[in-house]
Amino acid sequence: MTLAFIGGTGLTQMQNLIQHQRLELDTPWGRPAAPVVRGELSGRPVLFLARHGDPHVLLPHQVNYRANMAALKQAGATEIVAVNAVGGIHSAAQSGVVVVPDQIIDYTHGRETTYFDQRNGPVTHVDFSWPFDRALRERLLAVLREANLPRLESGVYGATQGPRLETAAEIARMERDGCDIVGMTAMPEAVLARELELPYAMLSLVVNPAAGKSHTEITMAEIEAVIHAGMGAVCELLATLVAR
Ligand code: HPA
User: Fold this and answer.
1) Which uninterrupted H or E stretch holds 101?
2) What Rg do the C-alpha atoms of the chain give, in angstroms?
3) Residue 104 in contact with residue 190, Cβ under 8 Å?
4) Residue 209 beta carbon below 6 angstroms from any ligand 1 atom
């Protein structure tokens, strides 16, 4: 088993990862955002990919998700934990809370969402009723409980197109839809993992109240401060996860 991590905003490099190799990979869908790092965490071999590039240059809609996921599979990943920064919609999803979502609603558009679009390939519709791997989620939840971090053990992730943040009305609609958190990267990443038959789960760090959920504007400074305070704990958590 080789666990791979995808780092999002605020996690372009994992401080506690010992790097052995940076694999410059190419895939039939193009090049991934960055070299795939082959390294060691808690004495175990792991892989790491910076979703937005290293340095972080790609906006969520510019990421070549197909190349990223195919490159991880090519490098030998057998399961994936993706980390991302999100806005909080549910009242329990306050800044600093870590969420392990169990559902997704996809509001993105214009992204390449499948590997099965070759004209001469098989027509395939993957089951996506439960977008995250149950066993991997349980392992994440076990280390979160042990670390006693502020957490939400389930939640609906609303994936928006970005790069702009949402309007207050859009967030109110998403709340009516049942979304608990909002981010820009879970889709199509999660479905591509499913198509590649790679178990996939997510750790979402809430970095701001979603639009209209506070009386102030959402600023990058506010987001960066929460990321700075929270991503260290997320890295520790991942180290505990691989040590199991
Ligand atoms: N909306 C969408 N994506 C985000 C947000 C947000 O408020 N915060 C971090 N990523």
Assistant:
1) none
2) 17
3) yes
4) no
Report residue 119's pLDDT band, with 50, 70 and 90 as the boundaries.
Answer: confident
Q: How many whole angstroms separate alpha carbon 16 and alpha carbon 88?
A: 27
pLDDT of residue 178: 98
Neighbours of 161 (CB within 10 A): 16
Q: Tokens 């990862």 sit at which residue?
A: 17
pTM exceeds cut of 0.80: yes
* Tokens 């053990």 belong to residue: 153
Mutate-to-test residue for ligand 1 from 108, 184, 189, highest number of ligand atoms within 8 A of CB: 184
pLDDT over 90 at 157, yes or no:
yes
Amino acid at 210: A
Q: How far is CA 230 from the centre of its chain?
A: 15
Atom of ligand 1 nearest to the CA of 184: 3
